[in-house]
Amino acid sequence: MSDLPRKAVTRTARLATLPLGYAGRATWGLGKRLGGISSDLVGQQIQQRTADQLFRVLGELKGGAMKVGQALSVFESALPEEVAGPYRAALTKLQEAAPGMPTASVHAALAQRLGEDWRELFREFEDEPAAAASIGQVHRAVWHDGRPVAVKLQYPGAGPALLSDLQQLGRFAGLLGPLVPGMDVKPLLAELRERISEELDYSLEAEAQRAYAEEFAQDPDVLIPDVVHQANEVLVTEWLSGTPLSEVIRDGDERQRDRAGQLLARFLFAGTARTGLLHADPHPGNFRLVMEGDDPEHWRLGVMDFGTVDRLPEGLPPTIGWVLEMALAGEAEEVYAQLCEEGFVKETIDLDPVGVLDYLLPLIEPAAVDGFAFDRAWMRAQAGRLADTRSPAHQLGRQLNLPPSYLLIHRVTLSTIGVLCQLGATVNLRAELIDWLPGFLEEEYARLAEEDGTGEDSVDPRSA
Q1: Parent domain of 81
Q2: Which of 68, 301, 302, 423 could be 223's S-S partner, Cβ–Cβ 3.0 to 4.6 Å?
Q3: Based on the structure, what is the number of domains in the chain?
Q4: Beta strands in 73-146 (DSSP E)
Q5: Helix axes 63-73, 81-96, angle to 10 degrees
Q6: Is 272 inside any structural domain?
Q7: From CA 72, how far away is CA 55, in angstroms rounded?
Q8: Do residues 41 and 182 both lie within one domain?
Q9: How much is the average pLDDT of 397-407?
Q10: What would the DSSP string read from start to end of 42-87?
Q11: Which residues lie below 8 Å from residue 369, measured CB to CB, with a gap of 6+?
Q12: Is the domain of 26 the same as that of 173?
């Protein structure tokens, strides 16, 4: 029914080309070095060829392979420019599209899941997919009541393919690591495996999207399409127009980049605070910049794909806000004590609090100012600092622990920062943290409330 390679032996054979190809490139690189070419240049060429092959294979296989590719693609900003440039277009393509199912397979799947009379649900249905991603593809249509809609159809066999891919890719994690300097890919793969069952369940996605759509129904900054219909492995939502964030990254002007970046940061923190749900798939393919009029203040961020969410009914842990505030104040001992209490430092390890603070400060620099210019150079500097085995930051980072409850929060935050760097946006992240992050600058709330003269709730967006 589908062009998605479902047989385990077929998919494993495709994935096996990754380490085999890497071995061949390593041999090629050795010959180049023996021929007098510098190790740095050879390393860059090997990395570029590895990336080209990686994203080609992942895009063709869809399933878990493409899901990993999407997760990795937001960290493209961390790569050296001379390496990232040649395949940046391939990353963008991976974020936006992949080969779709044949039309006959689409019709058969809809008949099986919506009934033989499925066409009566729509006034119009476009057979050519508007987008194709890791576990499903989206078709543009017109619902029977006249509303433009997006019909999300899960690939037949997507579940087994996801599980098989991630199991295989776990064995090749060492090959993916060099593409994201300073990041251990194994926990990322483990966390993705845990989220598969939720992402395959479109009823859970519909529930999460309805919660977001209801909360942001009248919001001037964020636009969430409502759920129209959900049945089995089909999800119908209102159509979301706008400019894909990948296009803003590629062609947007400064106003578009800055506005998109500010709204993305706002959505990350405000969305969690207001709904108790963390949108956990922040790659550019899931966002649109909806530009209504010429004033950027009236432009909104359109958000879709709520298949992966973290349920945080109390919002983000206030510990994050406390540690961030203390770190910015230079309170090394207090920061260290809080990290120990939360399990970021294991009981068997003794670290220098000042060294821990020095490790953190460059990472939290965007929260220290009222407008921070995110760019690839800053991201590369941070990644390089953490990846350099000779640096104190690398050694200390290896000794820190990431508690399971923070794993998804950590990945989403890093992914969002990666997208901000791709945008090259100047963002007042500090303002969003003050407004929406529990525990951060609580005294600032009190000061604003006193100046306002009408009480704290009047200036605290989280009380809404």
Answers
A1: 8-99+159-196
A2: 302
A3: 2
A4: 122-125, 131-132, 136-143
A5: 130
A6: no
A7: 10
A8: yes
A9: 84
A10: HHHHHHHHHHHHHHHHHHHH-HHHHHHHHHHHTTGGGS-HHHHHHH
A11: 430
A12: yes
- The pLDDT tens digits for 250-286 are 999 999 999 999 999 999 999 999 999 999 888 888 9
- Tell which residue, 100, 106, 109, has the closest CA to residue 60: 100
Q: What's this model's pTM, rounded to 2 decimal places?
A: 0.77
- Confirm whether 389 is domain-assigned: yes
Of 176, 196, 216, the last residue of a domain is 196
Q: How confident is the model at residue 244 (pLDDT cuts 50, 70, 90)?
A: very high
Cα–Cα dist 280/411, whole Å: 8
Give me the chain's average pLDDT, please.
Answer: 79
Q: How many angstroms separate the Cα of 231 from the Cα of each of 114, 131, 146?
A: 7, 20, 20
- Residue 286 has which token pair? 């899931």
Same domain (yes/no): 191, 323: no
Burial class (CB in 10 A: 0-12, 13-18, 19+), 4: buried
Enumerate the H helices of 216-253 as residue ranges: 245-251
Helices (H) and strands (E) in the chain, counts: 19, 14
Cα–Cα distance for residue pair 137/123, rounded to 1 Å: 20
Angle 193-166-65 (CA atoms, 0-180°, nearest 5)? 115
Q: Could you tell me if residue 64 is inside a domain?
A: yes
Q: Which is it for the CA torsion 310, 312, 318, 321, positive or negative?
A: positive
Final residue belonging to a domain, choices 174, 196, 218: 196
pLDDT single digits (tens) 193-210: 666 677 888 999 999 999
Q: How far apart, in Å, are the Cα atoms of 327 and each of 47, 76, 353, 404?
A: 36, 28, 11, 22
Q: What share of the chain is helix, strand, coil (3-state, %, to 5)?
A: 60, 10, 30
Together in a domain, 46 and 181: yes
Q: Is residue 41 part of a domain?
A: yes
Q: Which two tokens stand for residue 54?
A: 């990686």
Q: What is the pLDDT of residues 318-337, one digit of tens each?
A: 999 999 999 999 999 999 99
What is d(CA 223, CA 225) in angstroms, rounded to the nearest whole number? 7
What are 300's strand-pairing partners? 290
> Which residue shows structure tokens 């050519």?
128
